[in-house]
């Protein structure tokens, strides 16, 4: 669910040129103007990759590699910790495993990551990663550091079948779903880059750089539910990466029949790409509304199994000038969601080239937010992040395609220009 367009860079007076920095650069690293490819590839050899496997997959793989049945539970637990708690990629570093067993593992498995193609760092610290997965497909991952948290926006599909009219990503056809391993790999790759794996013997730092995951990148996560669920179970596992379910948010455009599963099978927070208060407008902005309209969506949200005052649903609402931003819209929104513990995230629209909408004026957004706030709902206006590197959701497709075109030149676009 790619639901977070950002306000225009010009409002902040920032340079719109993409910037990159070398791998391992600290968060405060000065940005540079050079776009280049970071040479870091998947391990060769075609062996199964332990990184990204679920517990059941790892257990089956270890058995198939010759681990005795009587040991496989213990071995799975040990490997799990090395791969997901310590972030180790070298079998020789697994010091509680006998040397001959390490050799067996090294002969049968790799511990890899998705291929990192480029990393860009915004002036505000936001990091955008272009990641290549099997088949040569590419997705983008965005890390947003804040004072009290660090949020990673991961992708669940290459492209999207939905065609939300405010979303640039939605114009990219669905290529394929990501596997669970490819979704977990995004988290692991960014932990590598942030240097966040624990160091044996060092005091544990409870302040995490990557503390939250939002499924708001490319794609509709409820159209790839099993892979998303399995990936989040790996990420939540207490003996590995160990992110609390409360720190994971799944954002959907409104795939009504699948919504309850997010609570029962993952247990995560839910965000909904709502964006309109009438079916006529939502049919255009979020066309899945023609299949499951506002009434059907709200009924599913009222029934969301984990709904409570401490686990509110987030309503994402992009502010489009003259389309969905009137006082009457705000009042209607409040009436619609009455009784649902909720927070409304107001998202100033980011205008992309050819976009059919404009961003609502600042005072209109403020008036809209005020009506919602006075009705008793939190109504934060999303702060722009990473605008200088096109890291905002809704821009991911354009950035990916631009990078691909640049790499293809001069045989491709440049030759034809
Ligand atoms: S088109 Fe797809 S990626 Fe974009 S907002 Fe809609 S569901 Fe999300």
Describe the structure.
By secondary structure, the protein is α/β, with parallel strands linked by helices. The protein folds into two domains: 9-35 and 113-408, Alpha-Beta Barrel (TIM Barrel); 55-108, DNA polymerase, domain 1 (Orthogonal Bundle). Helices cover 30% and strands 14% of the residues. It has helices at 55-64, 72-85, 99-108, 180-194, 225-236, 259-266, 279-285, 294-302, 327-337, 362-374, 396-408, 413-416, and strands spanning 115-121, 127-133, 137-145, 150-153, 157-158, 176-177, 212-215, 248-252, 269-273, 313-319, 342-348. Strand 2 and strand 3 form a beta hairpin. The protein is elongated and about 70 Å long. The two termini are 34 Å apart. Mean pLDDT is 84; it is low at 3-44 and 408-417. Bound molecules: iron/sulfur cluster. Residues 1-3, 160, 162-164, 167, 169-170, 218-220, 253, 273 line the site of iron/sulfur cluster.
Output the keywords.
nine-stranded mixed beta sheet, binds iron/sulfur cluster, disordered C terminus, 2 domains, TIM Barrel, two-stranded antiparallel ribbon, DNA polymerase, domain 1, 12 helices, elongated, alpha/beta, 417 residues
């Amino acid at each position: 669910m790619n639901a977070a367009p950002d306000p225009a860079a010009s409002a902040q007076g920032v340079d719109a040129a993409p910037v990159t920095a070398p791998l391992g650069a600290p968060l405060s690293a000065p940005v540079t103007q050079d776009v280049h490819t970071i040479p870091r590839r998947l391990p060769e050899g075609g062996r199964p990759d332990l990184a990204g496997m679920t517990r059941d997959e790892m257990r089956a793989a270890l058995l198939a590699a010759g681990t005795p049945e009587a040991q496989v539970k213990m071995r799975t637990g040990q490997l799990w910790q090395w791969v997901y708690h310590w972030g180790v990629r070298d079998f020789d570093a697994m010091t509680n495993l006998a040397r001959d067993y390490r050799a067996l593992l090294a002969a049968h498995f790799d511990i890899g990551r998705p291929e990192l193609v480029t990393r860009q760092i915004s002036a505000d610290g936001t990091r955008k990663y272009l990641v290549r997965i099997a088949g040569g497909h590419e997705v983008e991952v965005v890390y947003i550091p804040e004072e009290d948290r660090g949020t990673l926006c991961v992708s669940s599909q290459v492209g999207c079948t939905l065609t939300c009219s405010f979303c640039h990503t939605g114009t990219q056809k669905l290529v394929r779903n990501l596997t669970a391993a490819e979704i977990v790999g995004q988290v692991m790759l960014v932990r590598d880059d942030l240097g966040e794996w624990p160091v044996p013997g060092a005091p544990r730092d409870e302040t995490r750089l990557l503390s939250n995951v939002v499924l708001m990148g490319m794609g509709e996560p409820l159209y790839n539910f099993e892979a998303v669920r399995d990936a989040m179970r790996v990420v939540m596992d207490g003996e590995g990466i160990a992110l609390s379910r409360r720190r994971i948010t799944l954002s959907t455009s409104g795939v009504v029949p699948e919504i309850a599963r997010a609570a029962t099978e993952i247990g995560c927070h839910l965000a909904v790409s709502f964006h309109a208060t009438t079916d006529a407008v939502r049919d255009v902005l979020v066309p899945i509304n023609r299949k499951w309209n506002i009434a059907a969506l709200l009924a599913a949200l009222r029934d969301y199994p984990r709904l409570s005052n401490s686990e509110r649903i987030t309503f994402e609402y992009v502010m489009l000038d003259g389309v969905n931003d009137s006082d009457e819209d705000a009042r209607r929104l409040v009436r619609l969601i009455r009784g649902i513990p909720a927070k409304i995230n107001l998202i100033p629209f980011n205008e992309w080239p050819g976009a059919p909408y404009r961003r609502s004026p600042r005072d209109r957004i403020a008036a809209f937010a005020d009506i919602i706030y006075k009705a008793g709902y939190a109504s934060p206006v999303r702060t722009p992040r990473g605008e200088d590197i096109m890291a905002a959701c809704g821009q991911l497709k354009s950035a990916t395609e631009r990078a691909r075109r640049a790499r293809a030149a001069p045989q491709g676009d440049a030759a034809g220009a």
